[in-house]
Amino acid sequence: MKRLQPPVASVLDLIGETPIVELKKFDTGKCRLFIKLESQNPGGSIKDRIARSMIDQAERDGRLQRGGVIIEATAGNTGLGLAQVGIPRGYRIILIVPDKMSREKVQHLRALGAEVRLTRSDVGKGHPEYYQDMAEKLAAEIPGAFYANQFSNPANPLAHETTTGPEIWQQLDGDVDAVVVGVGSGGTLSGLGRFFAVVSPKTEMVLADPVGSVLAPLVKTGEMIEAGSWTVEGIGEDFVPPNCDLSLVKKAYSVSDRHSMLAVRDLLSKEGILAGSSSGTLLSAALRYCREQKVPKRVVTFVCDSGNKYLSKVFDDFWLAEQGLAEREQHGDLSDLVARSHREGGTVFVGPDDTLLTAYGRMRRGDVSQLPVLEDGRLVGIIDEGDILGNVDGPYDGRWQRFDQPVRTAMTADLHTLQASQTLDALLPVFDRNEVAIVFDGDEFVGLITRIDLINHLRRNR
């Protein structure tokens, strides 16, 4: 019962003082590796700390008035923190979010009451649709708006210098050899770097950076490269944020999206810790650092946020396959383009005697617009949104009875199929007929190929 605490006055009183776990199931070489569970903050991420710090400071210095508007450019977690802290205090929250962010984050933000405006994630600073530039412009247009600007707000690194750092120091009994962090805004790196420079000069700050980000190459070579793209959310940059003091970094690692995803899934399967994609980047870099050491060291890194926000991405095998981030056997034929292979049990399907309502529900849950119709394991038809709509549309009277009709009354049974051995060129005539490609290997049904599947294949093999 020693971990039990008395009731608190507000959920915001639970920000910080997060637990640390030693990872025992990974090969850490001569080192001991610890991970601080920032996912245990009430908003589910390390960004709760800086959200409270930035709002408190803005209230103290008068930049944020009662009933005011808070605007921020965010990958999601800072926005969640600002909404968690700001909405109960009566502030309106407007967030500019890149469109690559997970569905769960956006839904969480809107459920809290924040206004979310999505923008492009494939453009850099200086472009009118770049999320930070959009937020700054919007803040200038709304009288009295407070632009939190985590990228240059000094209250961001201060939160880590005064809370996160002292917590680690106390939890690890004043013995910390290295801290592995990522950089989104730079607040964690700079705040912790300043704290440990004072209390423990031996402590090394280690940067974990996605491949495509400019930061790790800049640390290693001193040269600014052209930014690429990456899938991991929340860390990596195409510029050096004002809050990011790279002079504090002693070693930097570039980590591929694939290694990040593998690491965070291993963290769940081996240690039972459900973490977000950026935590995979940090863990992968931390393991590399640990294995390189010639003498024992005590190393700490972070679960930056909860994996609950990425269930539709990082922990979805089909999404990983679509992104080219999963180890998947390649056959060199059309079967490689089938996202949901029937052989692997991935096909979402209906039977001919299922109702149209059942077919509609499976389309919605599977996020697909057509379903194969299987009877005793054999493909007997295909049904799409148009087939359902054509059969249920009509007068209100009798509509629900029409939804109860069996799939066989609406499906297309005259099927044009392709063999897996055929080339990509065989797909285009199918798509020109506004059909989906139905792929067989001999007499065995393999799966469906849509236009999106072909686009994904071409993107992955550029």
Note the topology.
Layout: E1 20-22, E2 32-37, H1 47-60, E3 69-73, H2 77-86, E4 92-98, H3 103-112, E5 115-119, H4 131-141, E6 146-147, H5 155-171, E7 178-181, H6 187-199, E8 204-210, H7 215-221, E9 249-255, H8 257-271, H9 277-292, E10 298-303, H10 317-322, H11 356-366, E11 370-375, E12 378-384, H12 385-392, H13 399-403, E13 417-419, H14 427-432, E14 437-441, E15 444-449, H15 451-460
Parallel strand pairs: 2-10, 3-4, 3-6, 4-5, 7-8, 7-10, 8-9, 13-14
Antiparallel strand pairs: 1-2, 11-12, 14-15
Question: Which key features would you list for this structure?
Answer:
15 helices; 6-stranded mixed sheet; CBS-domain; Rossmann fold; 15 strands; 4-stranded parallel sheet; single chain; alpha/beta; globular; about 450 residues
How would you sum up this structure, described in words?
The protein is of the alpha/beta class and 462 residues long. The protein folds into three domains: 21-39 and 161-310, 3-Layer(aba) Sandwich (Rossmann fold); 47-147, Rossmann fold, CATH 3.40.50.1100; 329-460, CBS-domain. Helix content is 34%, strand content 17%. The protein has 15 helices and 15 strands. The strands form four sheets. The protein has a six-stranded mixed sheet, with helices on both faces. The chain has a four-stranded parallel sheet with strand order 5-4-3-6, sandwiched between helices. It has a three-stranded mixed sheet with strand order 13-14-15. α2 (77-86) runs parallel beside α3 and α8 (257-271) crosses α9. The longest helix is centred in the middle third of the chain and has 17 residues, at 155-171. The protein is globular, with a radius of gyration of 25 Å. The termini are far apart. The mean pLDDT is 93.
